[in-house]
Design a protein that fits this description.
alpha/beta, seven-stranded parallel beta sheet, 13% strand
């Protein structure tokens, strides 16, 4: 069973699930988690936010991590003081990038045990003001890039009997004004999660999703919103979350790691909301 998140000092990030001490009771535990060198994990969008927290959480749990992103300086900041995190600069919307990322993981580590499709792009616009090029960029980044990268990593994942974790959004289950394209890409990603889980079950590959609610990341800033608009957005988000606060990247990363582990081996096709009950509140 996954460990409970740490209940340390208020505001402290939850501790990453620790390395397994004994896998003998787990049926068909994937080899990467039982290897002394630890599993190999590919994390996209690893330069900031949830991706950076996820890379840190896996490395702290004993994994070797290929941290993928577009900006080298941000990836190097992610890898700072963690020698098991290795930056890999790539634009996953480029045609040859997914194969190159898979090859980089195999060349460096010889395996791929976990793939975390986290990278995403948000461009807010209501219907009537949606720019077609911006819509295309969101579809390519949020939906097609995970599809292509998963296909490029599929044979190593099959050999490892590994896990794919798709990071979507809790907002995709409800109407979301000004986010129709972004929400549609994430709803599509959830459908891929469920379908791939069925398609790959016979190979021992699990596919799961984590659907964050409002989280304190740079995604709003990267979408081009002003500081005042971001403050208004954050206040509105807190008001919609029954727990009364915005989540931390580390809280999402904890679940990504937990769902990747052998103890979660009977979980596949599920999309877990981590959103302070926002999606179920009326």
């Amino acid at each position: 069973m996954p460990q409970e998140p740490s209940q340390g000092a208020p505001g402290a990030p939850p501790a990453a699930p620790s390395a397994l001490s004994d896998t003998s009771a787990l049926p068909d535990a994937p080899g990467g988690w039982t290897s002394p060198s630890g599993p190999v994990v590919v994390v996209t969008g690893a330069g900031t936010g949830i991706g950076r927290a996820t890379a840190h959480a896996f490395a702290d749990a004993g994994a070797r991590v290929l941290a993928v992103g577009r900006q080298r300086d941000r990836l190097e900041a992610t890898a700072a003081d963690r020698p098991d995190i290795h930056p890999c600069v790539a634009d996953l919307t480029a045609p040859d990038a997914p194969d190159a990322v898979a090859a980089a993981a195999l060349d460096r580590f010889g395996a791929i045990d976990v793939l975390v499709n986290n990278a995403a792009l948000v461009v807010r616009a209501p219907l009537g003001r949606i720019d077609e090029e911006q819509a295309r960029r969101q579809i390519e980044t949020n939906l097609l890039a995970p599809l292509r990268l998963t296909q490029s990593c599929l044979e190593p994942l099959r050999r490892a009997r590994g896990t794919v974790v798709n990071v979507s959004t809790a907002g995709a289950v409800r109407g979301w004004p000004a986010n129709s394209v972004y929400g549609a890409t994430k709803a599509g990603l959830d459908f891929l999660t469920r379908t791939w889980a069925v398609e790959l079950a016979a190979d021992g590959v699990r596919v799961v999703g984590v659907a964050p609610g409002p989280v304190d990341t740079e995604i709003a800033e990267n979408s081009g919103l002003s500081a005042d608009r971001i403050a208004e957005l954050r206040a509105a988000q807190r008001a919609r979350v029954p727990l009364g606060r915005i989540g931390r990247p580390e809280e999402i990363a904890w679940w990504i790691v937990a769902l990747s582990r052998p103890e979660a081996g009977f979980t596949t096709g599920a999309v877990l909301p981590v959103d302070g009950a926002a999606a179920v509140a009326f």
